[in-house]
Amino acid sequence: MSMGGAIATMIDTVTGTHATFLSGPVMTANLNINYRRPIPLGSTVLLESSLEKKEGRKTFITCRVTSTDGSKLHTETSALFLSITASHLLGG
Question: Which residues form a coiled coil (predicted)?
């Protein structure tokens, strides 16, 4: 079975890329993953990311990890990303 940390990394990458596309540079503020079914090693899965809503600097994204045919739900995720600027990164 795949390890939860590897799955979380994939989800954070996909949802973060989606949020960046929509909002520019962002940082992950919250990543809530519900693991529903194990993913056997060597499996191919589909990650589907969707915009839930945007509120000011906040971008809310959901993500589902399923089997490629969609018949098995492996995880459901809600993520919150905050838009950032260079001054945020430099501590300003």
Answer: none
Strands (E) in the chain, as ranges, are 26-35, 45-55, 58-67, 73-83
Is 69 designated active site? no
Question: Domains in the chain, ordered, with CATH?
Answer: 4-89 (3.10.129.10)
Beta strand pairing call for 26-35 and 73-83: antiparallel
22 HSE (CA, 13 A, CB side)? 23
Pick the catalytic residue: 2, 8, 10, 12? 12
Q: Is 90 exposed, middle or buried (0-12, 13-18, 19+ CB in 10 A)?
A: exposed
Nearest to 51 by CA among 92, 81, 91, 9: 81
CA distance 26 to 37: 29
The pTM for the full model equals 0.89
